[in-house]
From TrEMBL:
<dbReference type="InterPro" id="IPR001296">
    <property type="entry name" value="Glyco_trans_1"/>
</dbReference>
<dbReference type="GO" id="GO:0016757">
    <property type="term" value="F:glycosyltransferase activity"/>
</dbReference>
<protein>
    <submittedName>
        <fullName>Glycosyltransferase</fullName>
    </submittedName>
</protein>
<feature type="domain" description="Glycosyl transferase family 1">
    <location>
        <begin position="184"/>
        <end position="337"/>
    </location>
</feature>
<dbReference type="Pfam" id="PF00534">
    <property type="entry name" value="Glycos_transf_1"/>
</dbReference>
<keyword id="KW-0808">Transferase</keyword>
<dbReference type="InterPro" id="IPR050194">
    <property type="entry name" value="Glycosyltransferase_grp1"/>
</dbReference>
Amino acid sequence: MSLRILFALPGLHRVGRGAEIALMSVASELAKGGDKVTLIGSGEPSEGTPYKFLHSGALPRGLFERFPKLPTLRNETAYEELTFLPGFLWQYNPSDYDITVACSYPFVQWALRRPSGGERPAHIFVTQNGDWPVHSNKSEYRFFSCDGVICINPDYYETARSLWRAALIPNGVAVDHFTPGPGDRAKFGLPEGKRLVLMVSALIASKRVDEGIRAIAQLPDVHLVCAGDGPERAAIDRLAAELLPGRFTRLTAAPADMPLLYRSCDAFLHLSLDESFGNVFVEALACGLPVVAEDWERTRWIVGDDQFLCNTRDQNALAEQIEQSLAPGEAHAEIGRERAQQFSWANVATQYRDFFEQVIAARRSSAD
């Protein structure tokens, strides 16, 4: 029997961040499998999507970077979500769905959990942006509720499983889109004949792009490419101008161009110490790039034991791992590609669907 499923997130169809890509990819697979899937986001409908898309306007978070940090409105993301709420409430009818899925908190979550005249659909919270709402009893997090939690890494799952019905389901990768092949450095304005290390990251402090610049500065013949934007852009540009003159390129790329950008570079560097999952890891692996990242259990759960992991707070160790990653050979690339196959969106969507059925069955059982 098909399910009526709603995915709600302000950035859907407007930006290509990790959470948006994850929800749209799962939604597409479920719709192709026969479920009736609807997305509500601040972008516009696209031709050829297998699901229904409803527009709800929102002001982009970049407009709120200098706004005051207040309880509930703690960052620019919360402000963006608040502006999304009026249009979302206009579009959302609880009786249209068997189950709803969201990963932002608090405003969309509260709207989905508000009392309604009829039966409220089951609700799933996905820990795309962290698991703090799942276990905290402070401030607005005291009002969190759901019928099930999808945890995108083992750490979150161990915390959530004692509090909520929970499932451990990773994010994935479009294995038919992110593939090995020739690059096109000219398209992105990248230098030929140089060894290129790629960072794909929002320009915020937690992504530690500045530490990547400092590490690359120790490798005189390496050029750093940074694909991303964010409030730290000016500071990153200044540091790169000081430490990497002529050896730094910052750009933004459309989601459709990302596989080509990966293939245009020689190694992938990601330095976040609190990444929920990191779709970029499996994207890089799928394109055949070696990965340099923090050596901790969550990273190894994603990339395996064959990548270039270290204590990235040690600048010398980090620079050494980057150097080693730049000549791993074709055999190493094949290992990464094989691992990426485990994270296909088709496999991930099947796990989502199984968990949806479990949650709905549990609700029906408790109501009897």
